[in-house]
Amino acid sequence: MNWDDVRIFLAVARAGQILGAARRLDLNHATVSRRVAALEAALGAKLFRRLTTGSEMTPAGERFLEIAERMEADMIAARGAIAGEDSDVSGTVRIGAPDGFGVAFLAPRLGALTAQHRGLKIQLVPVPRSFSLSRREADIAITTERPEEGRLVAQKLVDYSLGLFASRDYAAVHGLPETLAQLAQHRLVGYVPDLVASPSLSYAQEFSPGWESAFEISSALGQVEAVRADAGIGILHAFIARSMPDLIAVTAAKPIRRAYWLVYHESVRPLRRVQIVAAHIIAEVERERSLFQ
Fold this sequence. Notes:
Elements: H1 3-15, H2 18-25, H3 29-43, E1 48-51, E2 54-57, H4 59-83, E3 90-97, H5 99-116, E4 119-126, E5 140-143, E6 152-167, H6 168-174, H7 180-183, E7 188-190, H8 204-207, E8 215-216, H9 220-228, E9 233-237, H10 238-241, E10 247-250, E11 256-265, H11 272-287
Parallel strand pairs: 3-4, 3-5, 7-8, 7-9
Antiparallel strand pairs: 1-2, 5-11, 6-9, 6-10, 6-11
Helix pairs in contact: 1-2, 1-3, 1-4, 2-3, 5-11
């Protein structure tokens, strides 16, 4: 069995189509198709069903995916062992994170790591979406829920709170609600419900069963800026809102708690660069834990 064929199989499985895998591997479509066919011939089994929408794994393909990922993990571990622990860390680590945590917390704290390791490149993708670690959309993901499925390594980073906030100018003009009944009389800023990346982030009803946003933004930082611009009362990350003197807390509803988790796929555990970046994030959160309390 040719390892390159296995590597191409993994790319097709993760992309869900031969064309997408070819782009990711910088190979032409015909080469990828031919190498997958060669692997299927070597194994004596069909690994994919070719559909008009892409490539769907067969039951044999699903079984072989587990084996292929173990082979990949062994190859990664072997490269790490041969390279040695004394060599400087190098390569690219992509971090997927919710935009609030990614921009407000991580972005100012990752530059020191690239200054320390000149061969290290960090890609921070702070957008309000979820990332597939099995498809290698990111090496490390910051999530708001602990994953329950897949070969993933997860560590809880910290609890954080979300609360109601308004701008001082908004409060001066409109006043602040003291009860939930009064909250309904105000303009509300919230998220776009059908674009919520995780069930744990659909929390408006926890603040008020009748919550109805007048302005919906699919970005935590966008909601912060809208509230600062007097658009209304919004549900904001307390660790962000408290750092802005022009915002004040609204006590009509109690804050709610959520948590951040650091997650990566088991197959990248041997990668020294991933471990160094993960350790740096964990250390920075621990050092700044008071921000989230």
